[in-house]
Amino acid sequence: MKVAIASDHGGVNIREEIKSLMEEMGLEYEDFGCECGTSVDYPDYAVPVAEKVASGEFDRGILICGTGIGMSISANKVKGIRCALVHDVFSAKATREHNDSNMLAMGERVIGPGLAREIAKTWIGTEFEGGRHANRVGKITAYEDKQ
């Protein structure tokens, strides 16, 4: 699995935690920033990562900002992206099993590094169930294709 990861200034610390986790898991990843402590615009990081996932260059993407909200909204504007904003382990598992989410967004000001690692580990390790859920995800894709 190849993962793209990025954060704005509000998610730098958790981004580093998730990079360490991916190294421990032996995953290939690429960090798309940001490399600053000053305010930046989250769409400048979310959209390029989402485009890389949508194109198939990366299997999945992880985005972190202060709340995860801005990153998830931005990523979901890219056709083919199903970015889930997650702040608990149950939702991390459910969004992979039921929604086949290909991107994960989290908020550093909402959760701590330990929980962020557990969420990411669960999300990375959970497969899509398919079945009745495939039909539902297919409806989302069909709608996107009409736009």
Topology:
Blueprint: E1 2-7, H1 12-25, E2 28-31, H2 43-54, E3 60-65, H3 69-75, E4 83-85, H4 89-99, E5 103-107, H5 113-125, H6 132-146
Parallel strand pairs: 1-2, 1-3, 3-5, 4-5
What does this structure look like?
The protein has 147 residues and is α/β, with parallel strands linked by helices. It is built from 6 helices and 5 strands. It has helices spanning 12-25, 43-54, 69-75, 89-99, 113-125, 132-146; strands at 2-7, 28-31, 60-65, 83-85, 103-107. The protein has a 5-stranded parallel sheet, with helices on both faces. Helix 1 (12-25) packs across helix 5 and helix 4 (89-99) packs parallel to helix 5 (113-125). The termini are far apart. The relative contact order is 0.18.
Judging from the principal axes of the Cα atoms, what is the shape? globular
Please tally the helical runs, counting DSSP H or I stretches of 4 or more residues: 6
Helix content: 40-55%
Low-pLDDT residue spans: none
Task: Enumerate the strands of the largest sheet in spatial order, edge to edge or round the barrel.
Answer: 2-1-3-5-4
Q: What is the succession of H and E elements?
A: EHEHEHEHEHH
Rounded to an integer in angstroms, the radius of gyration calculated over CA atoms is 14 Å
Q: How far apart are the termini?
A: 30 Å
β-strand percent reads 15-25%
Instruction: Describe the sheet with the most strands.
Output: 5 strands, parallel
Question: Mean of the pLDDT scores?
Answer: 97
Give the total of beta strands.
5
SS class: alpha/beta
